[in-house]
Amino acid sequence: MSAIDSPEEVPAAFQSAWNAHDMSAFARLFQADATFVNRFAHYVLGVDAIVALRRPLHETIYRDSALENELIEATAISADAAIVHFWSRLRTGVAHPAGAHDIDTLILTVITRRDGQWRIQALENVTLANPRTGEAMLRENCPAAAAGPAS
């Protein structure tokens, strides 16, 4: 799956392209002028820059990684735009310098429809961390994160 037919499909499409380590499929998820902020606050503009940021990682330390994404909420802001939040668990493999381990992040995307195609306009990825220590943590160890969006 790389095409996005509705905002709710963003997490699955992102997961599919990542897990295939297919940078062409990954590129098709984004508008040409999209922005991307990775979990280390590296900001890039444009789909070519997004792929240039990701490709070397998928050829090296993330080559045996896998994502498991879970939709939190998709909120329409117009007929052609939506905000989508989703959890993402990155499972690194032995190719990662720190070895196999899990990392949970929260991803915020703004998705827009142009010429009938839904694509990511902006994406920001934030690592779940203990606010007192900065240590990365998993969702199940953080009651506030596990609760999801406020009602």
From TrEMBL:
Record key words, sorted: Plasmid
Pfam family for this entry, one: DUF4440
UniProt keyword Ribonucleoprotein, yes or no: no
Domain DUF4440: 12-120
Gene3D superfamilies per the UniProt record, alphabetical: 3.10.450.50
InterPro entries from the UniProt entry: DUF4440, NTF2-like_dom_sf, Steroid_delta5-4_isomerase
NCBIfam families in the cross-refs: SgcJ/EcaC family oxidoreductase
Annotated protein name in UniProt: DUF4440 domain-containing protein
Species the sequence originates in: Gemmatirosa kalamazoonensis
